[in-house]
Amino acid sequence: MKKLRKQTLDGNVETLLLSILESGPSYGYAIVKELNARAEGILKLGEGTIYPVLHRLEAKKLIASKWRLADNKRQRKYYRLTPKGRRAFANNLQQWQMLTMLIGKVVQTAENKVIPHLKGISL
Amino acid sequence: MKKLRKQTLDGNVETLLLSILESGPSYGYAIVKELNARAEGILKLGEGTIYPVLHRLEAKKLIASKWRLADNKRQRKYYRLTPKGRRAFANNLQQWQMLTMLIGKVVQTAENKVIPHLKGISL
DNA sequence: ACGCTATACCTGTCAGTGCGAGGTATAGTT
DNA sequence: AACTATACCTCGCACTGACAGGTATAGCGT
């Protein structure tokens, strides 16, 4: 199975991270693992990708962080959604719905000629 | 109704243009109009956005162009899909399907807590 | 003749975003 | 002692859409 290109993914990683944090507070390293597990076979993000995103989200006040010492005796930076982040997440879901609608419209309009291509698609 | 943000749209304009050209050859000015018509209320692109995209697609050999004098007595640059472009379009549709799958998985996994937000969504 | 609108093309610069390579440090295991 | 997993981080690259602006012509109304 092919992977999602950056091009397609672009602009969606923030929302993916927010959705992970919807399930409860977590920290960077665990978030990458969790996300890659959820997206098994579709997506595999590196740590270098998500840390900047986390910082960006925090700068926007969509998430907040707190250092905490784990049983590991490792320092973890736990992130949680802020109310603003919760609203942003809901809003992003709307954006996805709109994108889906748009894709639907466009593909539908070009349907006659697109069908043969769609037929061959197997994930 | 809100518009799609660049962030969400990112990486999809190329595919949208390709889908327009799937319906037959066309030229820049008409393509913008057509696309904005198909995406009425969701999206409104300016010409300054799509011309660079067309050039980019041509550079990648996904589309090819030919100047032609219209009845208007205006010079129009007609673009058509190349075989490579056709394959790319099919491929991009797969990408969209994958993204949709991914979104589904992620949202589903976080479902318990997400439902209240989804409930409030009306387009 | 004049100005306005629609048609039709174009460029340059900006900001945002994911990627990848690389770096640091520590705990636990072999 | 070496290695792996955990856990954090930064920097520079490439790509992409947005936006402002520029050019030119046909056709219409005044």
Can you walk me through this structure?
2 copies of one chain form a homodimer. Chain A is an alpha+beta fold and 123 residues long. Chain A has a domain at 6-91: Winged helix-like DNA-binding domain superfamily/Winged helix DNA-binding domain (Arc Repressor Mutant, subunit A, Orthogonal Bundle), CATH 1.10.10.10. Chain A is 60% helix and 13% strand. Chain A contains 6 helices and 3 strands; from the N terminus they run H-H-E-H-H-E-E-H-H. The first copy, chain A, has helices at residues 6-9, 13-22, 28-38, 47-59, 83-109, 111-119; strands spanning 26-27, 63-69, 75-81. In chain A, strands 1-3-2 form a 3-stranded antiparallel sheet. In chain A, strand 2 and strand 3 form a beta hairpin. In chain A, helix 2 (13-22) packs across helix 5 (83-109). The N and C termini of chain A lie close together (7 Å). Chain A binds a DNA duplex (30 and 30 nucleotides) through residues 6-7, 9-11, 13-14, 27-30, 45-53, 55-56, 70, 72-77.
List keywords for this structure.
123 residues; alpha+beta; Arc Repressor Mutant, subunit A; 3-stranded antiparallel β-sheet; 6 helices; 3 strands; 13% strand; disordered C terminus; DNA-binding
Write down the CATH topology of the domain at 6-91 in chain A: Arc Repressor Mutant, subunit A
Poorly predicted spans of chain A: 112-123
* Terminal Cα span of chain A: 7 Å
Q: Main beta sheet of chain A, described?
A: 3 strands, antiparallel
What is the level-2 CATH architecture name of the domain at 6-91 in chain A?
Orthogonal Bundle
Question: Counting H and I runs of at least 4 residues, what is the number of helices of chain A?
Answer: 6
Task: Give the helix level of chain A as a range of percent.
Answer: 55-70%
Regarding quaternary structure, how should these chains be classified?
Answer: homodimer
Radius of gyration of chain A (CA) equals 18 Å
Task: Please state roughly what percent of the residues of chain A sit in beta strands, choosing from under 5%, 5-15%, 15-25%, 25-35%, 35-45% or over 45%.
Answer: 5-15%
Order of helices and strands of chain A: HHEHHEEHH
Name of the level-1 CATH class of the domain at 6-91 in chain A:
Mainly Alpha
Give the rounded overall mean pLDDT of chain A: 83
- How are the strands of the biggest sheet of chain A laid out side by side? 1-3-2
Give the CATH H-level superfamily of the domain at 6-91 in chain A. Answer: Winged helix-like DNA-binding domain superfamily/Winged helix DNA-binding domain
Characterize the overall form of chain A: globular
Largest inter-chain contact set: A-B, 48 and 48 residues
